[in-house]
Each structure stands twice: as C-alpha cells, then as structure tokens.
Amino acid sequence: MTTQFKNEALVDFSKPENKKMMEAALAKVESRFGREYPIIIGNEDVTTPQKIRSSNPSNKNQFVGIAQKGTVDLAEKALGAAWKAFETWKNTPAADRANYLFKIASIMRDRKFELAATMVLEDGKSWVEADADVAEAIDFCDFYGREALRYAEEQPVVAWPGEKNELVYLPLGVGVVLPPWNFPLAILAGMTTAAIVTGNTVILKPASDTPVIAARFMEIVQEAKVPAGVVNFLTGSGADVGEMLISHPKVRFITFTGSREVGLHIVEEAGKTKHGQIWIKRVIAEMGGKDAIIVDEEADIDAAVEGVAGSAYGFQGQKCSACSRAIVSEKIYDEFLEKLVTRVKKITVGPVKDFSNYMGPVSSQSAFDKIMGYIETGKKEGRLVCGGEAASGNGFFIQPTIFADVKPTARIAQEEIFGPVLAVIKAKDFDHALEIANGTQYGLTGAVYTKNQQKIEKARREFFAGNLYINRKCTGAMVGVQPFGGFNMSGTDSKAGGRDYLLLFLQAKSICERLI
Ligand code: NAP
Ligand code: MG
Questions:
Q1: Residue 479, SS3?
Q2: Which end of the chain has less neighbouring CB within 10 Å, N or C?
Q3: What is the pLDDT of residue 309?
Q4: Ligand 1 proximal residues by C-beta, below 6 Å
Q5: What is the edge-to-edge ordering of all strands in the sheet holding 282-286?
Q6: For 138-152, how does the pLDDT look when each residue is reduced to its tens digit (9 = 90+)?
Q7: Residue 385 has what DSSP assignment?
Q8: Which amino acid residue places its CA nearest to atom 7 of ligand 1?
Q9: Is 369 exposed, middle or buried (0-12, 13-18, 19+ CB in 10 A)?
Q10: pLDDT digits over 269-315, tens only?
C-alpha cells in the first residue's frame, strides 16, 4: 500500500553533523572534477569527438565535468531507441512504473548531500538552495508516482443500460524533455518522471550549463533499473540537437522549461506539420516571469522587506518565480526603501562552497554580460540605491542591485533580467499597484503584503498570477502544496506538482462494450 504523499524535509545546516556531511560531499564532487559523462541511448554509452565543458561559476578555472556534444544523427538514433522501448513500456502496469519513481526518489534521498554539492559547484546554488532543489526533485517523483496510480484507477463515467462503458488513459508516445539550468535537478526530474510514469518514453536533453547534475540523475535512473530506452540521455546544444528534435515528425510531445524566446520558438516550430507526421504535437512550455510583490501601506513593513529581499536575491534572482518588481504604496515608500536597502546591503556574495555566502555567482559569462547590460539600462531608467556593479572574485559575481523610482513601463520593469536586480516602483494606491503588477506580458508568481482583508480579497480576484502569495515571499512553491506555473507569456498554463499535471502526458480512450 502506498503511503500518503509527504514533502521531503529540508536539511538543517546549523546542525554540525549535516554541515560535516555537506563538506564531505563537496570534497567528493571536487575529487571527480574533470570526469567525462557519456550520452546514453538505449543501454549504450556513446562518446563524441566534440565535448561540452561544464565549469564552476564560482571559480572559472574549475571544470566540474565533461559531457558529450550530441549530433543530429545521435538524436535520430535516440528517437529509434525511445520508440522501440515504448512498445513494452506503454503496457507496463502503472503500479510498476510508479515503483520506479519511488525507487528513484529513494536513491536521491540517500544521495541528497552529493546531489546538492554537485549543484553548488556546477550551478552556483547556495547549500540551502541546492538542498531545496534536491528535495523538490524527490517530491516530484513521490508525487507523480502516486498521481499515476490515481489516473490508472477506474475513471467515473455515467452508467448506460446494456453497456459497459469505461475511460482509460493512454500515454502519448515519444517526447523530448528540455529543462533549464536553473533547477537543473528538480525541473529535469519532474518533467522526465511525469512523462515516463504515464507510459511515455523520452529523450532527455539537459541544459548545456548543467550536464553533470543531469548525468547524475541519469545514473540514478539506471540504478533504479528503469528499462533501457525509456529515458535516453542526450547532451548537446539546444540550437542544434534540440532544434532537430522539436521539428521532427516522429516526436509526439515536447516538454520544455526555459526562456520565453525559446519557448515561443518551440511552439511555432512544433506547430508546423512535417512530412510523415500523423499527430498534432503537444507542447508543454513553462517560461519566464516578471514577478511582482505589492507592499501596501497597511502591511507589516519589516515582513515585506524580508519577503522582497528573499524573493529577489535567493539564488541570485535566477528563479522564474523571483521578485524583480517591488510595487510600493507611496505612503510608506521612503520607509520601505530605506529598510530594504539596509537589509540588502547585509547580503554576502561569494563562492557558494562557503556556507556563509548567501548569494553566489550568476550562471555563466553570457548571463553575467546580459545582467550587467540591464544594470546599465537601469542606471538610465531609475535611481541606483544599492549595488550596480560586479562583485569581486574569480566567478560571475554581481552585487545585489536595487533601482528605485522606476516607471512601470521601463525596460527593467518589463523584461525578465534573470539576475539580482530589483526595480522598485511607486504606486498611488492599492488599485494602482494591482494595475502595475498586471501590466506585463507575464503572469507567473506574485505576492501582496497587507493586513487589509478587502485588499486581500481583491488581490485574490484580480492579481493575474499563476501563483499568488499573501503576506509571504513569492518563491519556494512546494510540490503538491502550491502547484506551480504561470499565465500569459509565462507558459502554457500548466501546473507542475499539481493534480492536473499528468494529464498533459496522457490521452483518454473511451471504450464501450455492448453487453450480450
Ligand atoms: P533556455 O535558454 O530557453 O533553455 C532551456 C532549454 O532549452 C535548454 O535545455 C536549452 O538547451 C534548450 N534549447 C535552447 N534552444 C533550443 C532550441 N532552439 N530548440 C530546442 N531546445 C532548445 O532557458 P534557460 O536559460 O536554461 O532557463 C532560464 C529561463 O527559464 C528563464 O526565462 C526562467 O524564467 C525560465 N524558467 C521558467 C520556469 C517555469 O516554471 N515557468 C522554471 C524555471 C525556469 P541549451 O542549454 O543547450 O541551450
Ligand atoms: Mg556551469
């Protein structure tokens, strides 16, 4: 009997034994620096002449590992392996498929320090953020496993005399999984396991910035004895093998999490019917955000300062849910801003191997350049009150940055920067604040700080965000508790970690038998 789903507990690093385990895990991951990881198609390991070198964003001289650079020929081969495996996997009982997910979750739980340490060194996550990423990955497996059992149960249909009617859910076929680097374990594991637990087989093409943590996940999939060909692991460039796969006629669905630009491109390409294609491709695309926190004059200002700082600078602002706009009532604007600046100036920035650094590096040179470009734009569009420069060190470090007096229509108030840059915007009143909050093309997360119940009710109705939080920060959604996903240009309106999610990987068949 499967127990009820429960979220994985987070590690308390103030306990010396946990700190020790993390230090040991970091040393272990460092001892494996420079190791090479194969592409895995069916049960075959493949190496390629061209490689992807994954570096440590906290220390540009360190290479965490070397991955293969997949080719379109290998992508074609992976498609063949996935379709072959689909023939048996689609008929594997849901209970067996769910058990593979529970096994993957259990191996991840045993290895949580090592997985977290890998993300500290490959992705620049602080210990706390890396641990939360692992916990979320475990939760996805445990949650989707149980969900698959629910979808396999007898589904309710209306009774009709003389007939036996039923509705069953079938998998779609072969899909492509395209995760981002910013939750390189949780989102990768969530999208992959949701796809396979429902009977599909996949080609998993991880983000090129984080192939090592992806390879670790694939090792766990193999250790859990998921049959060969169910998950085919193909590292390579999105623009190259990714592009080939999204436009291939033999791909049935694409599950993507990443930028708006790439997401829209995928929706467009997947919409073109290719020669030999016999279905309409399904695309699940989770994209960016320009998430806002409204701070009303009737708010607990200290709590709001804490919530904004945590949401804006946790993982260097590189969460799709990160707060990049604080919309503040003019009645408390000066007080809030002053307190926020004081709070943010206390944030430590540096290599995240060191537990005492709250903020680490941004993900890559290109991310660094893009964010520094936005900071230059911000200097023209707002009043720089904190940060605004690179921080010292041999990595991609940027100071936590605040621009005040930003117009709602400014570029830094409209475009996703995906870094530690916050625009503070003044609002005349609560309605004005809501109007500003809703005034972008995105609709992912949002929060409101106020003690006024009427305003809370209004926000519930009118704040158009997929994930709305009241009197708390706008990051840190938990699987099952706050199903996650946004509106408008934030994606295809799906909810990862929610009861509807597995339906995206299924199609329903209605069967009617005349009783004779
Ligand atoms: P990205 O550049 O769009 O890449 C995402 C994935 O797509 C990567 O695996 C990438 O491979 C691949 N890709 C790139 N071009 C492709 C193409 N032409 N065809 C097929 N695949 C292609 O996004 P990112 O920089 O990794 O992630 C950051 C973004 O993700 C932000 O915008 C953030 O808001 C968003 N995000 C959204 C959510 C959500 O739930 N809504 C959650 C997390 C992140 P390569 O790495 O090889 O280029
Ligand atoms: Mg890297």
A1: coil
A2: N
A3: 98
A4: 178-183, 187, 205, 207-208, 237-239, 242-243, 246, 256-259, 262, 265, 286-289, 320, 416, 418, 444, 485-486, 490-491
A5: 44-46, 39-41, 231-233, 201-204, 174-178, 253-257, 282-286
A6: 999 999 999 999 999
A7: E
A8: 178
A9: exposed
A10: 999 999 999 999 999 999 999 999 999 999 999 999 999 999 999 99
Beta bridge partners of 323: 291
Q: Which of 182, 171, 150, 181 is nearest to 253 (CA)?
A: 171
Domains of the chain: 34-287+494-511 (3.40.605.10), 291-478 (3.40.309.10)
In whole angstroms, give the CA distance from residue 64 to residue 84. 34
Which residue in this structure is represented by tokens 């998430």? Answer: 291
Strands 39-41 and 44-46: antiparallel
What whole-number distance in Å separates Cα of residue 391 and Cα of residue 122?
A: 19
Ligand 1 atom having least distance to the Cα of 367:
25
Residue that has been written with the tokens 């720089």 in this structure: 384
Spacing, Cα 226 to ligand 1 middle (Å):
26
Task: Cite the active site residues.
Answer: 286, 320
3-state helix/strand/coil string of 173-213: CEEEEECCCCCCCHHHHHHHHHHHHCCCEEEECCCCCCHHH
